Amino acid sequence: DIAEDIKHQLLERIKGSPWFDLQVDESTDGINMAMALSLPKNTTGVEIFRVLDEYVSSKLNWKFCVGDCTDEAAAMTGRLSGPTTRIKAVAIECKSTYCIIHCEMLASRKLSPEINDTLRVVVRVVNHIKVNALTV
């Protein structure tokens, strides 16, 4: 109920703006969810955009989408069928950016083993909390 109320409040605020942007990540992190949208286990760019389009078209207006932030994975940025390409086709003003969290993750691979081990523990804890947060 709380999640539905928050989603409703967020959509009302977006509609009042009306500009919005999207943070899109095709990974399922073991819970088969990306924000509020269920995705199949093996996602393609076409499938990601189909699910996203169904949601956005039913709640918002694509012409007010001004930003799209992804991890730049091939499934996201495919020149012909990636969601970024398809979003730009329906949202002319949309500009794409690269998610900084993924840059930090890549940079962390060059850290000392001690710091890298600590970061791995933190990531496991955060993922555990994300997966089990509502199963009290």
Description:
The protein is an alpha/beta fold. The protein has 6 helices and 5 strands. It has helices at 2-16, 45-59, 74-77, 83-90, 100-108, 113-132, and strands spanning 20-23, 33-34, 37-38, 65-70, 95-98. The radius of gyration is 17 Å and the shape is globular. The two termini are 15 Å apart. This is SCND3 protein.
Task: List the defining traits of the structure above.
single chain; 52% helix; SCND3 protein
Please provide a brief summary of the model.
The protein is of the alpha/beta class. It contains 6 helices and 5 strands.
Tally of strands: 5
Amount of beta strand:
5-15%
Structural class: alpha/beta
The gyration radius over C-alpha positions equals: 17 Å
Total helical elements: 6
Widest sheet: strand order?
1-4-5
Q: Mean pLDDT, rounded to whole units? A: 77
Strand and helix map with partners:
Layout: H1 2-16, E1 20-23, E2 33-34, E3 37-38, H2 45-59, E4 65-70, H3 74-77, H4 83-90, E5 95-98, H5 100-108, H6 113-132
Helix pairs in contact: 2-4
